[in-house]
Amino acid sequence: MNHLTACFIVKDDADNLARAIRSVQTVADTLLVTDTGSSDNSVETAQALGASVDHFPWIDDFTAAYTHVVQRATTDWILLLDSDEFLLANQDDAIRHALSNPDAMGYMLRRQDFTDLSQPDRFTEMWQLRLFRNHPDLRYTGRIHHHLDPPLETLGEPDNRRVLESDITFRHTGYANRDWPAKIRRDAHLMQLELAERPGQFYYLVELGLSLLKLGNPIGYTHLTQAARQALDPKRLPDLPRGPFLMLLEFALSPAPRPDGFPLTQQHAEHLAERHFDNAPPILWQRARLAFDRNDHNAAARLLEHLLDLANTHTYDRVTGFDPRILADDATLNLAVCHAHLGDIPRARQLLTTLLSSPTHQDRAQVNLDALNQAD
Q: Is residue 184 a contact partner of residue 211, using CB atoms and an 8 Å limit?
């Protein structure tokens, strides 16, 4: 019998924690919550829902808390969720089937990220390793954006077990309606501590660099420059983590200013993007913008058509989060403009008409339709 423990860490998030626990109560055999210093009723909420709660002091290290809670588990399998996440309904059978697979060491689950809770149909998905076999050597590393070290794949090698992809899905609402500057400052602080302890990590160079730029701190360019040099090293390139590599290329392709001598040129970034991320929405979006700026409307239209096809078939790369608008209305509007430039007025009108019911794009769609009508 494969038993499952659902693990959570929490601090001052009682309402979301209650939703998270309820989402797993019918499939988890054990519920474990580690509190890192709540001043609300998170502890009492978890206990009332049947969770075993302990306390772990916050030491500016998410990894320490995550490692602590998973090491409390004694069952065969572990499901790890944050307090602002929850499993979608009617997935108990899929989870039990996953646990019964003797060849699986763990599963990548689909995380749906929301940026605006008033638009529940607008989200993006990315893979997250959240369901895995218990193992005495389970350890997380990284003060933030934690990952297992040694990797789960390595732990499964002696038994020929693999990490598999799954259709099991959970939702994350932590990006919606929050104080972004405060979150970015906190995350940047933790990443600075991480790089001070273990310098040169590509993942954190990219994440910290972009975070500092969002805060208006030009020191971010220094970190991104170090990361760009690693990306240009043929020996290091195959081992770069895909998520931050994509983010670095997105930055290099974007119209954002870059310092003099930034080693990753736009042209080289385009080459790497086409080679490594042909199905990644943020990359396709930036490549389409560049093509449009060069007046290559055919290329821009092809890239936007591909982007919309990936959205409709749900087959885009799930390596990092991005703005869900580029999968829908933004791409549609820009594709319409491309077709107008190409002289395909019927196609442009068709695309613009679909946007007349959009709460965010209907005004711009009407302006463009009016312009087409006047041109006739």
A: yes
One-character DSSP codes across 18-68: HHHHHTTTTT-SEEEEEESS-SSSHHHHHHHTT-EEEE----S-HHHHHHH
How many other C-beta atoms can be found within 10 angstroms of the C-beta atom of residue 37? Answer: 12
Instruction: Convert the pLDDT of each residue in 303-324 to its tens digit.
Output: 999 999 999 999 999 999 898 8
Tell me, what's the pLDDT at 376? 66
Q: Where are the beta strands (DSSP E) in 290-356?
A: none
- The distance between the two most distant Cα atoms of the chain, rounded to a whole number of Å, is 72
Rounded distance between C-alpha atoms, residue 188 and residue 193, angstroms:
9
Give the residue carrying structure tokens 């797993």: 24
Strand partners, 8: 33
Q: Which amino acid is at 250?
A: E
DSSP string of 96-126, one letter each residue: HHHHT-TTEEEEEEEEEE-S-TT-TT--EEE
87 closest CA partner among 79, 96, 98: 79
> In terms of DSSP bridges, do strands 104-113 and 52-55 run parallel, antiparallel, or are they unpaired?
unpaired
Enclosing H/E stretch for 357? none
Paired tokens of 320: 């990092």
Are 11 and 35 in contact by the 8 Å Cβ rule? The answer is yes
Q: Which helix (H) or strand (E) holds 176?
A: none
Per-residue model confidence as pLDDT tens digits over 183-225: 899 999 999 999 999 999 999 999 999 999 999 999 999 999 9
**Residue 178 banded pLDDT, cuts 50, 70, 90:** low
Phi and psi torsions of 170, nearest 5°: -135, 160
Instruction: Name 356's bridge partners.
Output: none
CA pair distance 69, 338, nearest whole angstrom: 52
